[in-house]
Amino acid sequence: MNSSSKKTKWLACLALALPLYAMANPVLDGYRAAAKQENPAFKDFSADAGHQLYATKHGDLACASCHTDSPMNVGKHVNTGKVIEPMAPAANPKRLTSAANVEKWFRRNCNDVLKRACTAQEKGDFITYLLSAK
Amino acid sequence: MTHAFSKELISTLMLTLLFSTSALAEGRESGGFFGFLKNEPRVAAQSSPSSKYQQECSACHIAYPAALLPTASWQGLMGSLDKHFGVDASVADADKREISNWLASHSRTDGEKPPQNRIPRSSWFKGQHDGELPASVWKRPQVGSPSHCDACHQGAAQGSFDEDSVRIPG
Q: Which residue of B has its CA nearest to A75?
């Protein structure tokens, strides 16, 4: 094989691999594993289900109460007025890069809104929705 | 007779001078000349606040300077983070220990413990604000509540409450 066709093959591999790499999210993968453990019948996460979770009001609070109706927007804390940077990675690349940070905010805010912990299915759906937002 | 009287007078004058000098030395930050009378907290600029306290406790509001509450209040707050003024503000155990230790070493053990550990319910807070501001100020959209220090005190997070730099939003 001469060097130019080798190069082409490498570039082709890269062209295929890069988009796949860009879509992969280790935090989401962690919840995929957890969801399978929670429910052996687990199939996949759903951005639509995530959107439902995001938008639905429970009592006096929804996720949207602080984060606005789109995770692409800058939000505002409903009590303190503190500015909250967008949740969607497309608007804020730092989001969803730290599993510990994501888990901390799920713990706090699921308790606040749902008055209970979110399941791994719910967390994965939610993250899938955030990843899909443009 | 005159001699004895002068001695007393001089001692009294010296004591007054000493007292007022130290009061003046307290500076504006702790309420100025009469600050020591109102027992206001001495808020030194927060030189290197615990980055963990800063990091974990400024997501929703400013990291309130540790001197604004006594140690007992901080203990109360840190022990009930899952029910923190209506929200879950819980942190990992190791972080909780680190933050608690830092707060304990940067707050006074004596000092007024306000109801519900709320800074604005301290009598010194009322002393500083109530006489000067109508209650309606707290309801202005950009202020919201008396716990929103940085609405009017831009340097609040750094422990700066200088009266000269107060800007009250309309």
A: B60
The tally of domains found in chain A comes to 1
Tokens representing B39 are: 């027992």
Does B69 lie in the same domain as B146? yes
How far off is chain A from B83, nearest CA to CA, in Å?
Answer: 10
- Pairing mode, if any, of strands A75-76 and A83-84? antiparallel
Regarding whether B104 and B25 lie in a shared domain, the answer is: no
Q: Which of A81, A100, A111 sits opposite B88 (nearest CB)?
A: A111
Within a domain: residue A14?
Answer: no
Q: Model confidence over A26-38: pLDDT tens digits?
A: 999 999 999 999 9
Task: Please give the Cα distance from B48 to B41 (Å, whole number).
Answer: 19
Assigned domain for B88 exists: yes
CB spacing of A81 vs B85 below 8 angstroms? no
ipTM exceeds 0.90: no
Q: What is the pLDDT of residues A69-127, one digit of tens each?
A: 999 999 999 999 999 999 999 999 999 999 999 999 999 999 999 999 999 999 999 99
Give chain B's length: 170
Is the residue at B142 inside a domain? yes
The CB-based long-range contact list for B75-81 (8 Å cut-off, 24+ gap) reads B75/B100, B75/B104, B76/B113, B76/B117, B77/B117, B78/B103
Give domain status of residue B43, yes or no. no
Separation between Cα atoms, residue A39 and residue A28, nearest integer Å:
16
Going by C-alpha positions, the residue among B39, B37, B46 that lies closest to residue B113 is B39
Q: What range does the domain containing B31 cover?
A: 2-38
Alpha-carbon gap: A103 to the closest alpha carbon of chain B (Å) = 11
Residue A46 lies in a domain: yes
Q: Is residue B107 part of a domain?
A: yes
Pick the residue of A94, A98, A101, A104 with the most B CBs within 10 A to test the interface with B by mutation: A104
* Same domain, yes or no: B32 and B58: no
Domain count, chain B: 2
